[in-house]
Amino acid sequence: MDYFYSRLEPLLRRWRDEKRIGFRHFSSGPNNRISDVAGVTVGHSTLNNRDCQTGVTAILPTQNNLYQQPLPCGVAVLNGFAKPIGLVQIEELGVIETPIVLTNTLCVGRGFSGAAQYMIEQNPEIGRALPTVNPVVLECNDGYLNDIQAMAVSEDLVVQTLKNTHAEFKRGSVGAGRGMSCFAMKGGIGTSSCYVPELDATLGVLVLANFGALPALLLEGIALGEEIERAMREPMSQEDKGSIIIIMATDAPLSARQLKRIAKRAGAGLGRLGSYWGHGSGDIALAFSTAPQSAEEQSTEAKSAELSDQQLDPLLHAAAEGTEQAVIDALLQATSVRGFGGNFRTSLSEVLDILCRKYL
């Protein structure tokens, strides 16, 4: 116990005095958000009504017409127990041509219809004089706190969310994150950014965190799961099968192949937290670059600016750190929620306050 306490005490003092935990190698961007990458904006619509605890989150990779000017994109499926839309075409062509919609598992179809409608409003000839469009919709199962069978997210709500995105946005129990759980506590939306000075580049991360078994939880390398279970009065259980979506944005000039390599490093960040991507977990990372256009459309000058693989190491490091920090942000920003069937998830911030009273 003395050794455990000697490691736990600095973490708790940092939380009590500074309201932060976690170690960083990189400095963050100005707001420590995915929107520190210029042009990226995020919006939420939250449904909070007794058994209905769900919503929509939208990420716009650029303020330009994405259908007309797609961006390089790569995807890594860490564990494929998931119901995404749009990844097959990204894998084939290496570009993203719509905003990204996050919602719950049974509302993926509504996300697709809403995103398609939004893109048709911007490009009225889609599916007629122009090719069809490839909406990207990613999901996690919020059925513990939300009556997911009610399919409360509508197409109109998706369109509304896509039309109201901003560089400043809320985190925690909002949007698609409203009903999500993480390590048997309240999960949801988290974000972070890392500035890479040697490349003069920023990598931003946004997560929809809904994964993790509490006994496996690591914070600052400390196995805290069992201690948290002892400190809480209500039973806390969650298998590592709930899923996480990780969205990465960077202004570094990268190819789709390189972005796929960046996306894979999200797994290193999840491992630092104790996740082992359980059998029933859908763990997907998507990375895009806001540097000019797709490989087919780049000028010779733009192509020559593309980073070499030998230059990728700091971005690989940033992807792991940014993912870990974004999940911690989701846990700390989330507020406790009681939802479907009376099920309850407490917030990590409340748990840390309890541990501070116990140990400090």
From TrEMBL:
Pfam families: Peptidase_S58. GO terms for molecular function: aminopeptidase activity. The keyword Protease applies. Keywords: Aminopeptidase, Hydrolase, Protease. It comes from the Bacteria. The keyword Hydrolase applies. Gene3D superfamilies: L-amino peptidase D-ALA esterase/amidase (3.60.70.12). Belongs to the peptidase S58 family. PANTHER family: BLR5678 PROTEIN (PTHR36512:SF3), D-AMINOPEPTIDASE (PTHR36512). This is D-aminopeptidase.
